[in-house]
Task: inverse folding
C-alpha cells in the first residue's frame, strides 16, 4: 500500500484498497479529458509507482468535489460549461 500526497491531499493506493470501499460506475467524458488524464498519469508516475488513468481521475474527482463543497463551484461550473 502506498500513501500518495498530491496538492495537499492524501490518496492511498494499493491492491484492493479502493475496491473494498467503492462502487464502479460508467460515465462518458470528452476524449480530450482522456488525453489529458493519460498525460498527467505519465508525468506523475515514478519507478515502482505506475499511475493509471483511473488513479488520476479519482484524484481529480476528489479534488473537484472538495472545491465544490468549499464554495469554489463557480470556477468548476465554468470549466464544465465551457466544454
Result:
Amino acid at each position: 500500500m502506498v500513501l500518495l500526497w498530491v496538492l495537499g491531499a492524501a490518496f492511498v493506493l494499493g491492491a484492493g484498497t479502493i475496491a473494498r470501499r467503492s462502487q464502479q460506475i460508467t460515465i462518458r467524458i470528452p476524449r480530450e479529458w482522456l488525453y489529458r488524464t493519460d498525460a498527467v498519469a505519465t508525468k506523475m508516475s515514478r519507478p515502482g509507482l505506475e499511475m493509471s488513468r483511473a488513479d488520476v481521475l479519482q484524484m481529480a474527482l476528489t479534488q473537484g468535489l472538495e472545491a465544490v463543497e468549499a464554495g469554489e463551484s463557480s470556477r468548476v461550473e465554468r470549466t464544465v460549461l465551457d466544454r
Notes: The longest strand covers residues 2-6.
